[in-house]
Amino acid sequence: MTVPMTTADPKSLRKSRLYLLLIAMVFAAPMIVAGLLTLGGWQPGAKGNGQPITPQRNFVAEKLQVKLADGSTYPWRDSEPRMSLVALAGPDCATHCLDALTAMAKARVMLSRNESRLRLLYLGTLPQDAAARQAMASYWLAGRDVDGKLASFRPTASDSVSALLVESNGTALSFYPAGFDAAGLLRDLRKVIK
User: Fold this and answer.
1) Structural domain harbouring 182
2) 73, 75, 80, 86 alpha-carbon torsion, rounded to 10°
3) Backbone angles phi, psi at 164, to 5 degrees
4) Across the beta sheet with 118-123, what order do the strands follow?
5) How many independent structural domains does the chain possess?
6) CB 170 within 8 A of CB 76
7) Which residue among 115, 128, 149, 178 sits deepest, i.e. has the most Cβ atoms within 10 Å of its Cβ?
8) φ and ψ at residue 8, rounded to 5 degrees
9) Can you tell me the distance from the alpha carbon of 102 to that of 91, in angstroms, rounded to the nearest whole number?
């Protein structure tokens, strides 16, 4: 028995092909847009507010010594895994510098239950104001870079401060140059301290 051949209506055939093409475009469009954005250099949520440190540095391997005010050496590796936020003051730490240091201390407090997982280390000359020095002592360990290995990160402008975020194994993660956004620093801290 032979089956009779039917011819398809050209109008409905075109309509069906158009629907198939539209369905394919619905699935392909997001991938095409994502590819174009990636080629353009835009990566959603992939960037922090700090600058990555390249080449990567490990302060334990470099034997970077920081002498604290009490004469002891700052341990980059602690007894428990805690990160370090290192503040590097420029010359004459005054109003703007102290405001930035206060913002960094507030960012630590805003980590709430994870506050103890971040240590604050201040490297530079302490402010002349006795009240400011006393307030800093509540949050900051003060010390000095013995061999000057962090000089490239220290700001040269008067009354300014930069910061380094250092992993608990001594690896420097991010650099925040003078004038950094404290809210951006807090966002970065919340990403890495959980």
Assistant:
1) 51-192
2) 110
3) -125, 135
4) 51-52, 172-176, 161-166, 83-89, 118-123, 141-145, 66-68
5) 2
6) yes
7) 178
8) -80, 150
9) 18
Give the phi and the psi of residue 45 in degrees, each rounded to 5: 70, 10
Whether residue 2 lies inside any domain: the answer is no
Kindly report, residue by residue over 19-40, the tens digit of the pLDDT. Answer: 888 898 888 888 888 888 777 7
Both 78 and 166 in a single domain?
yes
**Angle formed by the axes of helices 182-192 and 95-109, to 10°?**
30
pLDDT digits 0-9 by tens, 122-170: 998 887 778 888 888 889 999 999 999 999 999 999 999 999 999 999 9
- pTM for the full predicted model: 0.74
| 3 found inside a domain | no
Residue 69 domain-assigned? yes
**Residue 82: which CATH number?**
3.40.30.10
Question: Is residue 46 in a domain?
Answer: no
Q: What residues have CB less than 8 Å from 105, skipping those under 6 apart?
A: 120, 139, 140
C-alpha to C-alpha distances, 102 to 132, 176, 179, nearest whole angstrom: 10, 15, 14
Q: Where are the beta strands (DSSP E) in 29-73?
A: 51-52, 66-68
